[in-house]
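Box 4.2: Ligand-aware structure prediction
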Amino acid sequence: MSIYKKNIIFIILIFLSVLIVFFWQNYFVKNQKSQIVYFDVGQGDSAMIDTGNNIQILIDGGEGNIILEKLGKHISLLDREIELVIMTHPDKDHIGGLIEVLKYYQVELILETGIICETAICRKWDKLIEEKNIPVKYAEFGQRIVIDDIEINILYPFESLQNIKVKNDNESSIILKVNLENELYLFTGDAGFKVENELIDKSIYLKTDILKISHHGSKNATSNEFLRLVNPKKAVISVGKNSYGHPTNELLNRLKNMNIDFFRTDEVGDLIFN
Ligand SMILES: [Zn+2]
């Protein structure tokens, strides 16, 4: 073989190697650090805990299929599994996107309250769980779920709500605390003052580093007393364009008065803590 041919082959090999590394980095290896991402899903909630070991836990999925695009940015193409999906309550801005997630990913376990829900979206949810044979666990206080180095503690509901009809979906939201590398993250779904007061009355330990503000910044959630006990270093408001006035001035003022740094997904997009 001539020197010229050898050089051409050498250059092609170098080029192919660069191409393989590029695709590997961009499509197959997305994240190798543990992190929590609060997705900007418009008006709704969705957050993902990622161990960096191809293990993901998804809490709510916003509405519609924007969640698939968000997950695609963070989960490797080769990883089709989500180890745990937590559905805090069945309002469409929380469960809607999870329907798409159940269709496109293999979900290993679902945690939900099991409250009676007869909406079309809940029927779709139940049907997919049955078709895909996904194990379901019903949340109640005291449960502790450990996956890889993530620990999740369930603070609410105090007792299982499986097959119970509730008056207000928001006040049935699963409240949970995540411990990721000794940083505590509190998720409150859309729970309001009623549930907050129950937690306060029962002297549940609420202190947390990062608080996801309840109900997209509603004025009827995240009371001064609740904020004082949670005493977060930072807060995240998951919110998009809406007609409810979220986040409300009442809530924003409570955060400002307590000097709590907060971030809004409608202003900063996806938020990553690692
Ligand atoms: Zn909501």
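In the box above, the bound molecule is zinc ion. The first helix runs from residue 3 to 28.
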